[in-house]
Design brief:
Shape: globular
CATH topology: Ubiquitin-like (UB roll)
Structural class: alpha+beta
Distance between the termini: 19 Å
Helix content: 10-25%
Length: 140
């Protein structure tokens, strides 16, 4: 992992990508956001995107399948790591422009980032210290 990616994913400096939605709309216009939530703990694991193909694949297989906006291809969460997710419930918002997937992890990890003990953690493991405008680990 190069230093810029490591700083973005694990550092303390706030580096929000306010142009992400514009990039997604340009590269992948036919997607909607989906919040992925742990069915047991109710924790939000990650916000991602699906297109019609990814949604249909998720429904048919029961395995979390998303649309990678950076690679512009189907993304079976866990396809590389082996830590797949079973989709237990799909919810649709009132405007039908976003989804919520309630999932259960099949493996022992839910994010590719690890804490200092080497244990996988939730993608939302940092909180914003608004006084210092710096990120703080909640899972050291």
């Amino acid at each position: 992992m190069d230093n810029d990616v490591k700083e973005l994913e694990e550092g303390k400096r706030l580096m929000l990508d306010f142009s992400k939605l514009a990039k997604v709309a340009k590269a992948c216009p036919d997607v909607i956001p989906v919040a992925i939530q742990d069915a047991a703990t109710q924790e939000v694991i990650v916000i991602a995107y699906v297109n019609e193909r990814a949604l249909n694949e998720t429904i048919q297989t029961g395995t979390l399948t998303l649309w990678s906006t950076s690679r512009n291809e189907l993304w079976v969460k866990g396809g590389t790591s082996g830590n797949y997710f079973t989709v237990e419930e799909i919810r649709v918002n009132c405007e039908q422009n976003s989804l919520l997937f309630k999932v259960r992890a099949k493996g022992d990890a839910i994010c590719h980032t690890k804490n200092s003990s080497g244990k996988a953690r939730n993608c939302y493991y940092r909180k914003l210290n608004t006084a210092a405008m710096e990120l703080e680990n909640t899972d050291p």
